[in-house]
Amino acid sequence: MQKLNRSFVPRTIVIISLAFICKGVFYSAMIPIWEGYDEYAHFAFIQQLALHHQLPIPDTKVSREIDRSLELAPLPWELRPWSAPHVIHDLFWKLPAEDRARRQQALLANARRMAIGIRNYAFI
Questions:
Q1: Both 13 and 56 in a single domain?
Q2: Contact 56, 45 (CB under 8 A)
Q3: Which of 5, 6, 73, 122 has the CA that lies 20 to 30 A from 28?
């Protein structure tokens, strides 16, 4: 049996890792926030683990920041039963331009608060 070149395995791992990183960057840039009907829940799960070092229990609420982002960002069609101020993509693009701009600015401000105050989340 032929021996593998010692540099082949680490190089292969690096190439595969870079491919997954590129794929993640692409998805992050191309897919709108909360596009999947349960993406916010996945994010909230990871946020709970990162901030509180424990698994969430079934009645754990999402953070105020996640809840606020769900109010501001256009949501996927699957979440159409959610009431106002939540809006799906179709309704978001029917809003007046100034309302869309206000929502986008508020969403950016919310994201900045999340980034700056990562240790000071307030859970609802």
A1: no
A2: yes
A3: 122
